Amino acid sequence: MNVDILRYLTELYELKDPVLNKMEKFGHENEFPIIDKYAGKFLFIITKILKPKLIVEIGSGFGYSGYFFCKGLTDGKIVLIDYQEKNINKAKEFFREGGLLEKAEFKVGDAVDIGENYKNIDILFLDLEKVRYLEAVKKLEKNLSKNGVIIADNVLWHGKILDKSDKKAEKLREFNKYMAEKYDSIIIPVGDGLLLAVKR
Amino acid sequence: MNVDILRYLTELYELKDPVLNKMEKFGHENEFPIIDKYAGKFLFIITKILKPKLIVEIGSGFGYSGYFFCKGLTDGKIVLIDYQEKNINKAKEFFREGGLLEKAEFKVGDAVDIGENYKNIDILFLDLEKVRYLEAVKKLEKNLSKNGVIIADNVLWHGKILDKSDKKAEKLREFNKYMAEKYDSIIIPVGDGLLLAVKR
Lengths: 200, 200
Fold this sequence. Notes:
The structure is a homodimer of 200-residue chains. With 200 residues, chain A is of the alpha/beta class. A seven-stranded mixed β-sheet of chain A has the order 3-2-1-4-5-7-6, with helices on both faces. In chain A, a hairpin with a 5-residue loop joins strand 6 and strand 7. In chain A, helix 3 packs parallel to helix 4. The two termini of chain A are 32 Å apart. At the A-B interface, helix 1, helix 3, helix 8 and strand 6 of A face helix 1, helix 3, helix 8 and strand 6 of B.
């Protein structure tokens, strides 16, 4: 896709919110990787469409992707989990500023361990260390609701997914293969590749 | 995205069905434009996720995109509408071969006019003449169910969406603008661009 069309799409469909702009600036200044803005819009749309009661984020960082999910919620809630307290504190700050605190719960610790405490998850979002994706889905899939979906970021691994010498790419290929075999899945080619999977 | 990654995605996530292969061959031999195979997989996934009761296709051709929707249905039905009887007859033939006839209804005539007879549409799929997209959505949006979504194909118009001299591109830009303003929408960059929109 050419640059002009990409700009056309981004501008036409941008989710406008000054807090998102601040979060992007914060991520940039702190060299904290965040999800692609257009991928974020996809998270918002899929939430609007599915109307989930419970979203659980495994690896929330300072809440950028969580913010898109939360903006899309009708009457459910989102749980943000990250192992760093300073990330979660920052997320709380941004959510407070955006008026979204009431729809969100914040947890500090190992995201997979904490995630196991939540049952009937309608959207399980994976954005933790890439080598742990497969472990995470195997431990948490039993906690999905009947119609639950899994979304995972970075499944194209910055274009290095086919690199045989990259250890993380190898683990992500294993994860992608598992998701293709066990679920009805697709990778949406926005940002760094968003996997969208539903139980067969 | 490079060609190797595209092949990786397509092969990993292909919906395997010999009838789909036949339909692709038929489309190719008859120079009948059909939806991109990867975009078709997206239609299947979104149907699996949303579990719609009623899908209405405005401009079905010989049923290639409809087949993906129908394969994704849990207990709903799809209505295929095309103005050419020979297209609809061919669609019936393929659906029969795939064992999908029971979930499908087939109509011949002006797809917008016929579409107006259906209420509570959970997924409205637009794939008619591109100059009529805006007319179609304005006439049919009142027939969407409460959580209904609209999906439209070719909204990037084969990369010519920004071409100021292309009359169809101009009409599609008007449509995209309408969808961005009135709905929560995004264009999924698969195939020729799939618009996915939900009521605000």
